[in-house]
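no rush on this but wanted to send it before i forget. theres a chain ive been looking at and ive put its sequence and its fold in C-alpha cell form underneath. i want to understand how the C-alpha cells follow from the sequence so walk me through it. thanks a lot i owe you, the record is right below:
>
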Amino acid sequence: MATPDLDIANRLQAAGVGTVGTNIFTGGMRAPSSVIPAASIFVLPTGGTGPSPLLTGGASGVDYSIPSVQILVRGNVGTYITTRTTAQAALDGVHKSTVSGYFQVLARTPQPLYLGQDDTEHPMFSVNVQLYRLA
C-alpha cells in the first residue's frame, strides 16, 4: 500500500526541492534541532476521501480513493521571500506530477498559503495536495 506522505516527499526530492531525511521529513512539524534544520519541509497525511466507485466501473467493483497530504514549509528567521519561493517550488513540483501508484496528483491551493510565523519567528507556508488512486 502506498504511503502518500512518503510518496510526495520523494516527489519533492525528485523535483529538486530538497532531500528526504535532510530537509524534507514526513510527519508533523518538529522543532529545529541538530538533525532538523530550521528551514525544512514536512509532509503529513491529512486523510482524504474514498473508496468511491468509479462511474465507469459498473459491477466490476472498481473503486478510487483520494488521500490527501499537507506540505508545510518552514524557513529561517527573516526569510519570508525565500520561504515562499521554496513553497512555490513544492507546489510546482507536485501539481500534475507523475507519482507511481496514482493516476492524478493535484495541488488544491492556487498558491502557497502563508500561515504566519511560528513561536520563534520562522515564516511558514502550506500547500494542500490530493492524490488520486485506484483503491
